[in-house]
């Protein structure tokens, strides 16, 4: 088995957090944020995902640097209008062997030393997220229960290799080493061929020199130096989509459970009279209103997520998005949320029917009451005359 050449590039540990609401960028306290402006280089190939059309054009802020286990890491924050904050922790490597690169890929899996203290790596992005969220608190609107766990992903960006590697080398000649890098597995020699093939199954190559391999926990990009950022954006888009689907799934679970309890209480209770202000009736009408609002909100959001593909702006990026979407099982999550939306629709229909039935019974009772009073008044009138 041939030795993998030395590699130069950087690793980005991405942590995507749901903030529990949308973010109005115009409300951001920009004077408190160290915003990074990155104009597009002239002459660069234009692969432009139209993030502004799906609410994913972020504001990027500089969060400084840290020394983590003797590695200097640069940290950035990305504020997305859709209600997501990304914390990116980047570390560079130069002429690294496969063993040292795999070790670096696993940097975020355990405890590390920062400023003389030993902490879990995950505490670094979490602390920065909480601080950034607090800073932009006034810009967060339409609140809902946030999804507590971050969506974590690792990008391995290879800028140079010595000797130079082409796309086929990663897939054939150095298949197990590449799988080891993607999985952070130091014992990559023990990989079965099937497992190595699974790690490398989802890939895209525009030329003989560049390649993008998308695995579940990480992605490797090599040779696409001029438009690496655009490729990263597509993987980032799919990852954010996954986070939002998990958020809606959790939100629907909570709401459905609460609505079920509310509907069960009103359906099992005896007929609750003619007073429209009775507690049971108020609870039922409130439940119906919440069901309608949630159904509209989630349906609109899911429709936007479904339409992301048409906003990618360039066919090659569209292909990359489809690969990432398949690897992350986006369609499965969409189907799960669709199923719960259907369940929500059933609850909504049941609630509306119950309200309408109650109103019909109430109106019938009032009509009978009015007729009774009218007849009684006529009878009393006749008796008075007699």
Task: Please outline the helices and strands.
Elements: E1 6-18, E2 22-23, E3 59-68, E4 71-80, E5 84-96, H1 98-105, E6 111-114, E7 117-120, H2 123-135, E8 140-141, E9 151-162, H3 167-173, H4 175-183, H5 193-199, E10 203-204, E11 211-214, E12 218-222, H6 228-268, H7 279-306, H8 315-327, H9 330-385
Helix pairs in contact: 1-4, 4-5, 6-7, 6-8, 6-9, 7-9
How would you explain this protein's 3D organization?
With 386 residues, the protein is an alpha+beta fold. The protein has two domains: 6-229, no CATH class; 237-382. It contains nine helices and twelve strands. The strands form three sheets. Strands 3-4-5-1-9-12-11-10 form an eight-stranded mixed sheet. A hairpin with a 3-residue loop joins β4 (71-80) and β5 (84-96). The longest helix is centred in the C-terminal third of the chain and has 56 residues, at 330-385. The chain starts with 5 loop residues before the first strand and ends with a helix. Mean pLDDT is 82; it is low at 41-46 and 272-277.
